[in-house]
Specification:
Length: about 70
């Protein structure tokens, strides 16, 4: 299989339009726990955290070397 990755950034969407887009002046969140679950909400068992990452100083997180699947 060819491994893949999933990444993103956590920030506070403070503007009036709450557009889910990073706008000038919005704050990035460091130290936020981000969890990746395997499967769908309908078929995953309770407490099924598959991976855990913490955002860096700029709010970035990344899950690397993911096998094919549903997350």
């Amino acid at each position: 299989f060819i491994p893949s990755s999933f990444s993103g950034r956590v920030w506070i969407d403070e503007d009036v339009n709450r557009n889910n887009t990073i706008d000038d002046g919005e704050l990035f969140m460091s130290g936020v726990d981000v969890y990746l679950f395997e499967g769908t909400m309908a078929n995953r068992p309770a407490q099924s955290t598959w991976r855990h990452e913490v955002t860096d100083a700029e709010g970035y997180y990344s899950f690397e070397l993911l096998p094919p699947g549903t997350y």
